[in-house]
Amino acid sequence: MQIRPFAIAIEDAALADLQQRLARTRRVDGVQGVGWEEGTDRDFLRRLLDYWQGSFDWRTQEAQLNTLPQFIAQAGDQTLHFVHQRGVGPAPLPLILTHGWPGSFVEMQAIIPLLADPGRHGGDPQDAFDVVVPSLPGYGFSSAPKRPGTGPFEVAGLWAELMTALGYERFGAQGGDWGAGVSTWLAWRYPERLSGLHLNFIPGSYRPPLGVGQAPVSVEEQAFLERVADWGQREGAYGQIQGTKPQSLAVGLNDSPAGLAAWISEKFHAWTDCAGSLESAVTLDELLTNISLYWFTGSIGSSFRLYLESRRRPLHFHPGERVLPPTGVARFPAELPMPPRSWVERVYNVQRWTDMQAGGHFAALEQPQALAEEIRAFFRPLRAR
What is the rounded distance in angstroms from the CA atom of residue 102 to the CA atom of residue 269? Predict the structure, then answer.
């Protein structure tokens, strides 16, 4: 695997094109008074687009992102973008963090230094990590797969190859959303290499073995399954289209910055711990940096593929199968439906379970300090193993 340094440098022509497209936006009036009930709130979107066009400074955000040590790795015909921040401490533990959708490596800006250099941020240098944050294939500056067949299972193989190339034979894995699925597959496929697995989401495709020879579904577990079904009816349309006909949607979102902003910002509003006010959880600059990354790299369509690919190889387990590495779970209060511990323990080797005080689906972005402290605490007893 060939590795070279990388820095973000979006061309001026791309910035000018974005401005022109925003200026020509065909606004949708919609029905008054529905707020976020039927999708992105009309007034919020108008304000967000005005800010994107008139006040948002991509060059400032780009410079901030470029303070992170970034690299490009070539694995066959797959180009992988990643951050590699070495730890400051006596024995940093290698840790690979994986983002999800509609996030990106941008989510990890704040948490990377907290994990890599805890002594500088009120922690113990003994808890330092060598932090690796790859961009999923087809996201941001990682190239889109050229053919079908790259789902979370295969991405786990790429991550293992990347960690080997960086000199890490044994490491920890952490993730939410798609990152939880990829990290779980890492633990399943390479249990001897993982010192521990930490999740702030349980993959949506995860199903333990049920039926003959298995413990019956408990009242708490049945209530969870009913919550998932209800959530799917109310909020799951995006997953259906992205997992079945992603290219039709991708054409519009790849051509319209307003459409892209509406599609992504609605998910941030629905999935953050914001009590109806998105900016209480995520600033407009943070939101637009993430949206701009999708726009400038033209990666919204390729980011959808994980939804389709995961249907071909869902995270289902058979009787007797276990995810062996020690597992920690941080359950954030505004997260998408999360199963009870008993449901997770049917397959995962759960050794720590923490109900967090605040935060939602984008935990590293919303609550970086709390998540960093939880990750440190989980891996602390596993470092000597």
Answer: 12
Residue 361 catalytic? yes
pLDDT tens readout for residues 332-379? 999 999 999 999 999 999 999 999 999 999 999 999 999 999 999 999
Query: Is 41 in the active site?
Result: no
177 is catalytic: yes
Q: What is the pLDDT of residue 384?
A: 75
Instruction: Choose the catalytic residue: 41, 117, 127, 177.
Output: 177
Cα separation of 205 and 186, whole Å?
15
Q: Which fold has domain 2-6+41-382?
A: Rossmann fold (3.40.50)
User: What confidence tens digit (pLDDT) does each residue in 55-114 have?
Assistant: 999 999 999 999 999 999 999 899 999 999 999 999 999 999 999 999 999 999 999 999
- In the chain, domain spans: 2-6+41-382
Measure the CA angle with vertex 113, ends 174 and 90; round to 5°. Answer: 85
pTM: 0.97
Options 139, 168, 307, 348, the catalytic residue: 307
Beta strand pairing call for 70-75 and 2-6 = antiparallel
